[in-house]
Design a protein that fits this description.
alpha+beta, globular, seven-stranded mixed β-sheet, single chain
Length: 166
C-alpha cells in the first residue's frame, strides 16, 4: 500500500534512507551523506503532505517525496515544459533488501498517476551523476536527461535533471 507518511514515522524513514546510503557507499556511490536526506527535510515533506511510504504488513519498505515546489537549484535548467504545472520527485528510497522487486517502479507509477490526475504537465527529478543504475531506471521509464545541477553539501559531482512530459 502507498499512503501519506506520518510525522511519527520519520525515525523509521530515516533508518530506511541510512540503509540506502550505506548500500550506495558500499557500491562506490557517494550520493547521500550525514547532511542529506535530513530529518528536517522529511518533517517539511510531512507538513506539506508530500511524503509517501510504500508499506507491506505494517513495515515501511520505501518512500518518495512528491512535491509541487521547484528547488532554486533547478532554475537554470532548460526544462521541456513551463515552470508552472510540474511535480518534483525527491528522496525516492527503497530498502536495499527490497530493491529489484519493482517497488521504485510502483512509487514512480503512483507519482506519475497523481500528476496526471491533478492536471500537471510533467514530472521532474534529479539523480546523482555517479548513480548509473538510477539513470538507467529513469530513462527506461521515459524520462529525458536535460541538464546538470550541483548540491555542494552532497558532492562536488553533478546531479542530472530529468523530466517526463505527461
Amino acid at each position: 500500500m502507498i499512503r501519506p507518511a506520518k510525522l511519527a514515522e520519520i525515525p523509521q524513514i530515516l533508518g530506511l534512507t541510512k540503509a540506502c546510503a550505506q548500500h550506495m557507499k558500499a557500491n562506490g556511490i557517494f550520493q547521500w551523506n550525514e547532511h542529506y536526506p535530513s530529518k528536517e527535510a522529511f518533517k517539511n515533506d510531512v507538513a506539506r503532505k508530500e511524503l509517501y511510504v510504500l508499506e507491506e504488513e505494517s513495515v515501511i519498505l520505501a518512500c518518495i517525496t512528491i512535491s509541487t515546489v521547484m528547488d532554486q537549484e533547478y532554475a537554470p535548467v532548460q526544462w521541456l515544459t513551463p515552470n508552472n504545472s510540474n511535480l518534483y520527485i525527491h528522496r525516492l528510497a527503497v530498502h536495499p533488501e527490497q530493491q529489484g522487486k519493482g517497488k521504485a517502479r510502483r512509487l514512480m507509477g503512483f507519482a506519475e498517476q497523481k500528476a496526471r490526475d491533478e492536471g500537471y504537465v510533467s514530472v521532474r527529478l534529479d539523480t546523482f551523476s555517479e548513480n548509473k543504475r538510477n539513470q538507467r531506471f529513469y530513462e527506461t521509464l521515459g524520462y529525458q536527461r536535460l541538464g546538470n545541477i550541483y548540491f555542494p553539501k552532497q558532492s562536488s559531482d553533478p546531479f542530472y535533471c530529468y523530466e517526463l512530459v505527461l
